[in-house]
Every structure is written in C-alpha cells, then in structure tokens.
Design goal:
This is Peptidylprolyl isomerase. The chain has one domain: Cyclophilin (Beta Barrel). It is built from five helices and 16 strands. Residues about 35-45, about 50-55 and about 60-80 have low confidence and may be disordered. Strand 3 and strand 4 form a beta hairpin. Helices cover about 25% and strands about 25% of the residues.
Length: about 260
C-alpha cells in the first residue's frame, strides 16, 4: 500500500514532469518563432554608447550585439542614463542628403526628414561637428545578415554620441511576416541600437543585400547606386578573423568626411 509520504512524492514528481514538458514546449515555440530574430540579434546590429552593441543589430547572451556587439546583458534605460538628442534645427518637411566620403569611394544617402526627423536632425548635428570624420566602419556581416556597420567613434562597436534618439519609421518597411521579420532592401540605411527601444545613437548600418531583420531598426535612408556599389565591393573582399561571416572588413573603410545637406 502506498503511504501518504510516497503519494506526496509521486504527485510532486508528476507535477515537476508536467512543468518540464510545458517549458520544453514553450522553448520550442519560441525558437521557431524567433529563428530570424535570434540569428539577427546574434550577428548584427548593436551599437554602443557607454555600452553599445548593433545588436546589436544588438548585445550579449540573451541580448548580444543586432549589428550587435558587446553591449551589456541588461542595457541601461536610455531615459535614465543618457541625455536627449540635439535641439531640432532641420526642416522636417525637407529632404536631406548625407554624403560619406570614404577611402573606398563616396556613399550618398538620401534621407527623408518627414519620416525620420529626429534621426536626420541628429546626423546633421553630428556631421556639422565632424563627429564621423576619421572613423572606421568597424563591422561587416556576410552571412544571414548583409550589412556594413559604421558610425562608432571608438571603432569597436561600443561608442556613441553620449545621447540616444527615438525610434522612427519602424513600419516603413511594411507589415512583418509570420516570423516577425521584415526585409531591409539592398541599399537601405538604418540605425543600430542596443536591443532596447529608443536606444539609437550614432551607429548605423548599410545594407548591401536584402536582409531579414526584426522591424526594430529605424530605416532612415537609401544609398545611391555608386554608394551601394562601393559597399558591395567592400563586402566581396570579406572579413578578417576566424569568424568568416562577421568581423572587421578586410578592405578597411574609413569615413574621411561626413556631411548632411538640404536638397
């Protein structure tokens, strides 16, 4: 006969087994749902600013740098840790062009201030201060995500301008697919972030081939034909290091001069 203590243990064991089964099912569903999101966050876009990663496309472990790099597993709250962006000085109804003069060729980027006023205003402010001059495009990804990441004054994925700006135009690429991703077309230019909302700084990525990512990165511009050709040539040369699909570009890219002009 089963005594009360044995019965109690049996019930506890059955309860534990049910819990483990439910957890396994939840993990399986999460993995399937986030296949693209997870791969993106593990490869691309994190941006630093005290601890940016272009998570970076993000950050580390649970949040390791979407152009991510090494950002903290628990990034600080932008509202608590960083001041707001620069004062609005641009014409939000106008269009602007950012020109990046690099050692590999000029990259022209058409920007729409009506859709991304804070982003355009920030780049205008930063380029007027020569913030990007002499900086390197520190990260190239050529597998799953196809981007060249730039805009870090430190050149290692951890730098930023000392402030954050709001996300903008996140629905500009259309409705996400069932897997939660949207396509950032070749030629797109978007903001990197720490994996948290409204955490963009100065890092951005240049898409040289259609790339699926979560709609978490502000798309604010489009490269001209020559600019896209330049980035594709850099990508074709590959990356340095053991990780063949993610690392500093073999063909080093330095932004010699960055400007933003009203068109």
């Amino acid at each position: 006969m089963v005594n009360s203590e044995q019965r109690r243990r049996q019930l506890a064991r059955e309860k534990f087994e049910r819990q483990q089964q439910r957890r396994a099912e939840i993990r399986g569903k999460a993995r399937r749902r986030n296949v693209i999101i997870a791969s993106a966050l593990a490869v691309v876009l994190a941006a630093g600013g005290g601890a940016y990663a272009i998570a970076g496309l993000t950050d580390d472990g649970e949040k390791k740098d979407v152009a991510q790099q090494d950002s903290p597993s628990t990034p600080p709250s932008p509202s608590e840790s960083k001041p707001a962006g620069p004062k609005m000085t641009i014409d939000a109804k106008a269009k602007y062009t950012m020109t990046l003069k690099t050692n590999e060729g000029d990259i022209g980027i058409a920007m729409d201030a009506a859709k991304t006023p804070e982003t355009v205003n920030s780049f205008k402010s930063l380029t007027d201060k020569e913030f990007f001059d002499g900086t390197k495009c520190h990260r190239l990804t050529t597998e799953n995500i196809f981007v060249l990441q730039c805009g870090d004054p430190k050149g290692d994925g951890t730098g930023g301008p000392g402030y954050t700006i709001a996300d903008e135009n996140l629905d500009g690429l259309g409705k996400p697919a069932a897997d939660g991703a949207v396509t950032y077309p070749a030629g797109s230019v978007a903001m990197a972030n720490t994996g948290q909302p409204n955490s963009g700084g100065s890092q951005f990525f240049l898409v040289f081939k259609d790339t699926k990512l979560p709609p978490s990165y502000t798309p604010f511009g489009t490269m001209d034909a020559e600019g896209l050709k330049t980035v594709k040539a850099v990508a074709a040369a590959g990356v340095t290091g053991d990780n063949k699909g993610d690392g500093p570009p073999k063909k080093a890219v330095t932004i010699e001069k960055g400007t933003v002009d009203k068109t």
